[in-house]
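ok so i was messing around last nite and threw this chain in just to see what happens. nothing serious, just curious
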Amino acid sequence: MPKSLKYALMVFIGGFSYGAVLPLVRLSYASGFTPGSGMLAHNLLALVILAPVTLVFFRTSLNARQLLGLVAIGVVFFLTSATYFFALTYISPSVAITLMFQYIWMGIIIQAVAERKLPRLLTVASGLVVVAGTVLTTGVFNQAVSLHPLGVALSLLSALCYALFLFFSGRVATDLPAVARSTILTATRLALTLALAPLLITQMPTIPNFFIFGIPLALVGIVIPLVLIQTAAPRLPNSVTTIMSASELPGGILLAAIFVGDSIGLVGWLGIALVLAGIILSQASELCKLWQRLKGPGSEDRGPGTDTT
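result:
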């Protein structure tokens, strides 16, 4: 498998893992969690998982510039969640998700500006297909839409923060192990969550539920996707990282259908198909290379008497 395709697959798995947060959060809310306590639980427990691994297996020197850069990315990563959380107090989840997934075209533009060149036509086409799929998947057109200005602004800010997070994940302190970078990002998120605890946390679940739901949330919401994306992002164009991470949406919808019993209508399935088609389209050239490798040099049909020496 080409290395670029391997790393793209890592981002895809990381995005799909983020999707598992959706059904887990809904189950946790029924067990005494609130959005604020959920943020506290999965950040705290993710740090408990990542920090010992980093200290034992990935001891490395860290200079002040690297630390400040990672803390800055951690702040942006935190703002992605916090702005989305506050947006939901003004607009419906379907509208918020649709707006938040505009990070796809934002990420493509950010790369184009940073590199001072227009994106490839295939990248633009892939991004448009994915964005169209997200609109259909969220079902935003199947309901009355309330576009509160503050809710719209917060959702778009969440999208911009996530696009910036993906962009800088491939450029800041990339010589450090992905687990070490993930630990610093998580510690930053936890520190900000604790600092804003009076605003974010209105009630806490029971201690058993804190761990029963907190540990899975930490794994699928931070540890697995963050380590995978931090590993792959430095080795991929930002546009590829951005598009491949869109697997979060079909992952969330499909897993919610399996574990929570949500129904997926025809339009929803069409949206999922479009998102996946856009993701595959973005990797068309790499998939062609993989196909040629799998065929091998001797796979062509040879006629009788063909010299094979």
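not much to say yet. The mean pLDDT is 86.
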